[in-house]
Amino acid sequence: MSFFRRDPSPAPAGAAESPAARGRGTTTVAAGTRIEGKLGGATDVVIEGELEGEVRLAGDLVVAAGGRVVGDVEAGTVRIVGVVEGNVRGRERVELAPTGSLSGDVSAVKVVISEGAFFKGKIEMQGAEKAPAPAPRPA
Question: How many other C-beta atoms are found inside a 10 Å radius of the C-beta of residue 99?
């Protein structure tokens, strides 16, 4: 019996692009599995079970419905359909689905929070150009 599954098939519903199209596989932490420690790697990861610890991925992360992460997360794109308790850094994007729950700060270039999602924390937009301050008007 395996706790992890490498799956070259398309990502779960809601993912923007299939891992096969990007040339990397997906590792799934199956429902009913509980992991304590650090998780890292170059593949995409789907968490359907529970993970307590730090997540640092070169690929993307999906915390699926029923999935739970307690700890800080960093990945290319982070999609939260389940629960995350910790700070989240998405190098490209962070998405919080309608059923998602995030208690922690977010840092990303793009952030999407769907109606119905739970979010407690602050957001820092990274990499977006700031508009210049308006010139003072003559008196």
Answer: 16
CA distance linking residue 113 with residue 100, whole number of Å = 9
Q: Is the dihedral of CA 118, 124, 129, 130 positive or negative?
A: positive
Per-residue pLDDT at 129? 54
Contact between 52 and 58 (Cβ < 8 Å): no
The alpha-helical segments, DSSP class H, found in 1-139 are 19-22
User: What's the pLDDT tens digit per position in 63-100?
Assistant: 999 999 999 999 999 999 999 999 999 999 999 999 99
To 5 degrees, how large is the angle CA 42–CA 46–CA 52?
Answer: 90
Q: What angle do CA 23, 25, 28 make, to 5 degrees?
A: 160
Q: Check residue 14 and give its pLDDT.
A: 43
- 16 φ/ψ sector (left φ>0, alpha ψ -120 to 50, else beta): alpha
Q: Which residue has the tokens 């003072």?
A: 136
CA–CA gap between residue 125 and residue 60 (Å, rounded): 18
The per-type count for the chain, helices as H runs and strands as E runs, is: 1, 16
